[in-house]
From TrEMBL, chain A:
One of its GO terms (molecular function) is branched-chain amino acid transmembrane transporter activity. It is found in: Cell membrane. It comes from uncultured alpha proteobacterium EB080_L84F03. The chain crosses the membrane at residues 27-44, 50-69, 76-95, 101-123, 130-148, 183-200, 236-259, 271-296, 316-335. It is a multi-pass membrane protein. One of its GO terms (cellular component) is plasma membrane. This is ABC-type branched-chain amino acid transport system, permease component. Keywords: Cell membrane, Membrane, Transmembrane, Transmembrane helix. InterPro entries: ABC_transp_permease, LivM-like.
UniProtKB/TrEMBL annotation, chain B:
Residues 28-383 form the Leucine-binding protein domain. It comes from the Bacteria. CDD domains: PBP1_ABC_ligand_binding-like. InterPro entries: Leu-bd, Peripla_BP_I. Gene3D superfamilies: 3.40.50.2300. This is Leucine-binding protein domain-containing protein. It holds the Pfam family Peripla_BP_6. Residues 1-21 form the signal peptide. Belongs to the leucine-binding protein family.
Length: 358, 424
């Protein structure tokens, strides 16, 4: 009944090539956009913004970035935390060096800086792959964190080594600093997420994405059919770094406001984003959203249920939370190795036939 | 995202539950993770004191105190979540027990008009109340601690030309004393070596190898959590003289020295409050809290250094509430009135004796300009045979001639960056 192509005629190539060719899917997408842009900003409060929505939006951007590199191009990266730190520190340096430029451009520029750094650390991928590349990117993670701790120029020589986001506005509304409204920070991040997702979706279903996937599936075969592996791999690192840099900049400037590199952008952040795309689904933009939602919402939801509803001691809930999240990850990987995105695909197939399956 | 709306509405209702007449003290505790050894006793002490006040006196000024515990795991992201989820309940004062979370909360809480009391941690320059209207770090801060350690060393003998090594947690917390120690080294002529230890600090072989090679005369440590135990153990392994090893107050609890056994004997740590359980208040805690089975933890932490510190923090908060109730003439105060109470807080010997804590801490007075208190620092030493800490020096002044200009410079830089007009 749902997701039916029957009667949904396409009369031009543009129609045929659109992102959501099925009418129901397209309307669902419009509804999600309308709710996200038109309804949530009016309902949101500080708690919902800071506990759920901002981390969800920002981690989604990071997951999209890592998914392009790992899910689409097959280059395993454990350097996500370090690359997010590059975005955060680039954004901080730009914010303090050019206070008159709009924060919007700083965030994009931070993405650009991260793209360059990420490409540089992607160079080893031309020679090595798999576990060896993972170790090379792991080195990037530790090197970058060490660098931002060691060189005080990056944190403007402050005594504590912390970076603090000063107040910056967009159209006169503060989006960073202390006096922000929940809806403003939410919309600011949502705009970045929406644009990132649209760009990523279109890149991955076009020629560039096919090249990446060809490299992922078999790099020698891809080379034989005319894909330049150097350009494909490095472009994946650059695009991935761009998105991860944006997410790092937003994470620092909009969400946390004050950051200390070792604690916020450590190795556990790299693993968290990697888990997001594994659980969400490798090689799927929707999977990036689903994985981010799963790993952001679940711990807080468990905490709400355990502490606020059931009134259990906080330490017990914190331990149970670790157990449940860990168990769910394992169950998910056994029951559905292709992640939540695959569940979604299966559900869609079922819905096409419902209520009259064969 | 469509699916989330009903859930959102439901939770919004849950959060907006009716506000009862009570005094809410959020406790951003950490009972899990690598820093739990320090987080648990502090949180227990903080909660038990309020439980005792409720049971013995029926609250503070007739209004019940309610401690809202929220687990942060020493993690800034969870700290933000905890702050947002508790501030709507009328939270009076936040004590995050984490320098990272304090940095995070300073702008947020100031914008929301809620006070932060970062007792002996957090942003040191918050002592300047002209810039940091809602942040308090009395009675002592990191820079007082650094200066106190140097003063103590000077009282033991001439330190010019001596080598001092700073072993520090490589984070905002551990980096705080560096500038003060550098200034003091210029003033007193000792050599300072900086030795960072990365989070969580479980592996310190290379750091202590460096100490063994460079043979510093004294080691000062700014550590927390598991890092402390490892450092004390490593110092014992290289047979470093424990007499010359001084920790900040966050590196001076029973948890830090017990694993090293007898070898930790003589290790010293700074403090800004009394040690031991030899105070009348503990009898009340035993009677009203432990014996009634309402203790926050297992009840086995009472009298330990960090339990006492949690209790001290709770005592200062409760006294600030009393002060605020006097100033404003209402019993059920709001966060803004709490802030006024903290700013007018005066702790005297008589007050402490009346509370069952005679001589527990220095007497001091907070003012609008000075949110940092007097910065009196004492030295404690570990006796491994008796398993007790004991005070080996009086609470004495630190070198404010060096510290005050640093506080002014750092807070003014913050004011300029954030366009804050100096108050008072």
């Amino acid at each position: 009944m749902f997701y039916r192509e029957a009667g949904d005629f396409k009369t031009s190539y543009t129609d045929d090539n659109q992102t959501f060719p099925i009418k129901f899917d397209r309307y669902r997408y419009y509804v999600v956009l309308a709710v996200a842009f038109g309804i949530i900003p009016f309902l949101i409060n500080d708690y919902w913004a800071n506990a759920f929505l901002l981390p969800f939006l920002i981690y989604s951007i990071a997951a999209i970035g890592l998914n392009i590199l790992t899910g689409y191009c097959g280059q395993v990266s454990l350097g996500t935390g370090g690359f997010m730190a590059v975005g955060a520190y680039a954004c901080y340096k730009l914010m303090t060096a050019f206070p008159d430029v709009n924060i919007f451009f700083h965030v994009i520029a931070a993405g650009g800086v991260t793209a360059i750094v990420c490409t540089a650390f992607g160079l080893p991928s031309l020679r090595i792959k798999g576990f060896y590349l993972a170790v090379a990117t792991l080195a990037a993670q530790f090197f970058l964190v060490w660098l931002f701790n060691k060189v005080s120029w990056f944190y403007n020589y402050s005594a504590s080594g912390q970076i603090n986001a000063p107040e910056r506005t967009v159209f006169g509304v503060p989006v960073t600093g202390a006096n922000t409204e929940a809806w403003a920070t939410y919309l600011f991040c949502l705009v970045f997420l929406a644009i990132s997702a649209i760009i990523a979706r279109n890149l991955t279903r076009g020629m560039q994405g096919r090249k990446w996937m060809a490299i992922r599936d078999m790099d020698i075969a891809a080379e034989i059919i005319g894909v330049n592996p150097m350009r494909a791999k490095l472009s994946a690192f650059a695009v991935s770094g761009f998105f991860i840099g944006i997410s790092g900049a937003l994470f620092f400037a909009v969400y946390l406001g004050a950051v200390e590199v070792g604690e916020v952008f450590g190795i556990q952040k790299s693993f968290l984003v990697l888990f997001m795309i594994i659980i969400g689904g490798l090689g799927s933009i929707f999977g990036s959203f689903a994985g981010a939602a799963f790993l952001v919402l679940l711990p807080v939801a468990l905490k709400l249920v355990g502490v606020d509803l059931l009134g259990w001691p906080t330490d017990i809930v914190a331990h149970i939370q670790l157990i449940i999240v860990g168990a769910l990850i394992i169950i998910f990987l056994i029951a559905e190795p292709h992640g939540i995105a695959q569940l979604w695909r299966v559900a869609k197939e079922k819905l096409r036939l419902w209520p009259f399956p064969h | 995202m469509k699916m989330k709306l009903p859930a959102m509405a439901l939770s919004a209702l849950m959060i907006a539950s009716p506000v009862m007449a009570d005094l809410v003290f959020p406790s951003l505790s950490y009972r899990t993770g690598p820093y739990a050894a320090g987080g648990i006793p502090f949180a227990d002490g903080y909660a038990d004191y309020f439980t005792m006040l409720n049971a013995r006196d029926g609250g503070i000024g007739g209004v019940e105190a309610r401690v809202l515990e929220c687990e942060t795991g020493y993690n800034t992201e969870k700290g933000v979540e905890c702050y947002e989820s508790t501030k709507g309940e009328g939270a009076l004062v936040y004590q995050p027990l984490s320098t990272g979370i304090t940095y995070q909360l300073i702008p947020k809480a100031t914008a929301d008009g809620i006070a932060i009391h970062s007792m002996g941690y957090g942003r040191t320059s918050a002592a300047n109340g002209k810039v940091f209207s809602n942040v308090f770090n009395y009675p002592a801060n990191y820079w007082n601690g650094a200066s106190g350690a140097v003063n103590y060393l000077m009282s033991q003998g001439d330190i010019s030309g001596k080598k001092v090594a700073l072993v520090y947690h490589n984070s905002a917390y551990g980096k705080e004393p560096i500038r003060t120690l550098e200034e003091l080294s210029a003033k007193h002529g000792y050599d300072l070596t900086l030795i960072p230890v990365d989070h969580p600090g479980q592996e310190q072989k290379s750091q202590w190898l460096q100490i063994r090679r460079e043979k510093p005369d004294y080691v000062i440590m700014y550590g927390w959590g598991v890092m402390n135990q490892v450092a004390v153990q490593e110092a014992a392994n290289i047979r470093f003289n424990m007499e010359n090893f001084i920790g900040i107050w966050w590196s001076g609890s029973e948890n830090d020295v017990l694993p090293a056994g007898d070898k930790a004997n003589g290790y010293k740590a700074l403090t800004f409050h009394g040690v031991g359980s030899d105070f009348p208040v503990f009898a009340d805690i035993q009677k009203h809290v432990v014996d009634t089975g309402s203790a926050a933890g297992a009840g086995d932490q009472i009298g330990t250094v960090l339990y006492n510190r949690g209790l001290y923090a709770a005592m200062l908060a409760a006294e600030a509430v009393k002060t605020a109730q006097e100033i404003h003439g209402v019993a059920d105060i709001n966060p803004a009135q709490m802030r006024d109470g903290m700013e007018a807080l005066e702790i005297t010997e008589e007050k402490m004796a009346g509370l069952g804590l005679p001589g527990f801490g220095p007497s001091f007075k907070v003012s609008c300009e000075n949110h940092g208190g007097p910065g009196l620092v004492g030295m404690t030493q570990w006796d491994a045979a008796a398993k007790t800490w004991s005070l080996v020096s009086d609470f004495s002044e630190s070198d404010m001639d060096v510290i005050q200009p640093l506080i002014d410079a750092d807070s003014m830089a913050y004011a300029a960056e954030n366009k804050i007009e100096a108050g008072c």
